[in-house]
Amino acid sequence: MTDAVLTASRLLVAISARSIASVDESITLSQFRLLVVLYARGPLKPTALAEALAVNPSTTTRMVDRLVAAGLVAREANPDSRRELVVKLTGDGTRAVREVMRRRRSEIARIVDRMPGGTRRGLVRALSAFAEASGDLSIGEQAGTRWL
């Protein structure tokens, strides 16, 4: 059972990596995760972004620096407090997230379409139960925004 889940997990990571590389080969999976958090939650203070990613603030700063240089995110004055900055997606960043997600959904749909109907229905039940059993509330939040 565990081996089957690990195999499926490797396939899904590979699909994600291919989808990202097809849009911009310079974006890493971790950087894309940052873009997705901003897409889902909107502009965030760097500390809140680090918390959402469960990484050190210095790691977030380095990722943001690279994504600013790539034109995918911007740092702006916080409208609530001019002394603070927020990180937000640029138009290019938003387009990149949407295109990666479109490609990822398309590739997963092609794979699922090759499965027999009964197996597809069982897959939905099994994956839903797997996500629920994890107890990770953020999974439900992500599913609600159609990331998975």
From TrEMBL:
Pfam families: MarR. GO terms for biological process: response to stress. SUPFAM superfamilies: Winged helix' DNA-binding domain. GO terms for molecular function: DNA-binding transcription factor activity. Residues 1-132 form the HTH marR-type domain. This is MarR family transcriptional regulator. It comes from Amycolatopsis rhizosphaerae.
